[in-house]
Amino acid sequence: MRVIHFSGLAILALVRSSVAAAVQSNESSFSADAARYRWAPGTVISYKGSPDFRQATERWDIYKPPTYSVAITPAVEADVATAVKLARQQKVPLLATGGRHGISTTLAKMQGGVAIDLSKLNSISIDKKAVTITVGPGVRFGDVYEPLYKAGFQIQTGTATCPGMIGVTLGGGIGRLDGLQGLVLDALVSARIVLANGTLLEVSKTSNPDLFWGVQGAGQNFGVVTSATYKVQPLYKGGIWTSVDLIVPIEKNLSYFKAVSGMLPMPADLTVQTTAVYNTTLKRTQLLSSLVYAGPKEAGLKAMAPILNLGPFPFQNVSTLALDKLNENAMFQANAAICVKQQIFDVYGFNLKTFDVPTMVSVVRKMSDFFDTQPAARKSALLLETWPNQAVMAVPDDATAYPWRDATTYGRGLIEEIRQIELRWDTPGDPVEAAANSLGRDVRAALAATSGYGNLTVYVNYAWGDESLESIYGAKKLPRLARLKAQYDPSNVFQFYHALPTSYP
Ligand SMILES: Cc1cc2nc3c(=O)[nH]c(=O)nc-3n(C[C@H](O)[C@H](O)[C@H](O)COP(=O)(O)OP(=O)(O)OC[C@H]3O[C@@H](n4cnc5c(N)ncnc54)[C@H](O)[C@@H]3O)c2cc1C
């Protein structure tokens, strides 16, 4: 097995061990072709079984993962283009990887191809004058909090520190600043993208604006984004946030969900995250509630009063956090555990416009029954992210390909809630998988039925992989997206993430 580190034009080939004959012959032909290209110092080509390969391909979710024979880890943007050209010349499928936190089962359609591991392209530069940040595709959310905070700025991100910033942006990017600043993709000013033919394009409102539109919501389909520039904002209220964690016993489900429902539309500076989990000590289902407010404690507790008034709770913790430490510490400090690599996560997602209390109670009961009968899957959870969306809705629907910001269309200006069912077990192949998938589809269907959308709709980055294109991208956006796909990736090179068609309908 071989790992090739490129040092200038010199190729250092390390023969490590032998592998199956078939792989070996692919490897020889691949490395022979790879040697014909000029690679920058630091770019690494590694093959299955080597430590470099493991490092370049290790994922967060190992449920239905993509697999590779070769990984290319470019050290510079130009080598991304070279990697694309090489994979195409070899006629092997390719998949770019950013934070490697993709949860879609469509990624499993990639088997035995080339991983273009973007982790070394991890530069961050803040331009105080332009009020922007430019990041490489190897940057994770957790990398930008501190430098931005120290410079007096903030940007909307997801809630965990570990997903790739650009990878998340390409689908939307939802989180605790949705109400104040919008989706992560709403902050995008421009991006550089390597197309299937290896050419590099800049996309922005003024440069290739049509592709820029498509990148903002379906961006995994057109090329490899090698850098992205976002607008940032001055720290809101000095960057001080209030976080409250509560354990809500199952007896209070109904009053809890009524309180959440009564708070809608959620104020722009308040978010509520509810997780139905199994408590192994008490041997019963309970709700974990994470309330987060952008501002100091007194105002925060006032905004959260409809839920706090349901107390006392068996556990209640109030903390004041600086924004750069918020996502590590909010929600029961779950971030560290959430970000552990190589776990099984079988995730069903769906969007809701309306918060139907009887449905909430009924799906928590379904989860509870599941925990009772399936002990192997007691790490599973139903996660309800009740985000405000004032700033998301302030952006015109046709400004980007992201399809689910139009919640006001359905009346009363309720929030758009993105929800997930995370089904989990420890051992690949465990018989609990069939029961878990059946529950996932059942709970998703129950929530979709009262979602206010009339049918299942799902944020692309939370989609399982069995949903219709319309459920993911929205029927209205699909014709334009298909035209872009036909123009920029007619051979469907970028096909492993809820692939767009080249014509629609
Ligand atoms: C623990 C966890 C927490 C999450 N929290 C949130 C959240 O708070 N908010 C939210 O919106 N989403 C969240 N997500 C979902 C997240 O948006 C998606 O999983 C996203 O695809 C992760 O991107 P990645 O780069 O880490 O993953 P990858 O697996 O590296 O990539 C996913 C897909 O994007 C493509 N891609 C990645 N980078 C590029 C690039 N530079 N150019 C072209 N294509 C690229 C890949 O080819 C692949 O098809 C979370 C996921 C996890 C696992």
TrEMBL record:
Q: Does the keyword 4Fe-4S apply?
A: no
| Alphabetical UniProt keywords | FAD, Flavoprotein, Oxidoreductase, Signal
Supply one GO molecular-function term. Answer: oxidoreductase activity
PROSITE patterns in the record:
FAD_PCMH
> Which part of the chain is the FAD-binding PCMH-type domain?
63-235
Instruction: List the transmembrane segments.
Output: none
State what protein this is by name.
FAD-binding PCMH-type domain-containing protein
From which organism does this entry originate?
Apiospora kogelbergensis
List the taxonomic lineage: Eukaryota, Fungi, Dikarya, Ascomycota, Pezizomycotina
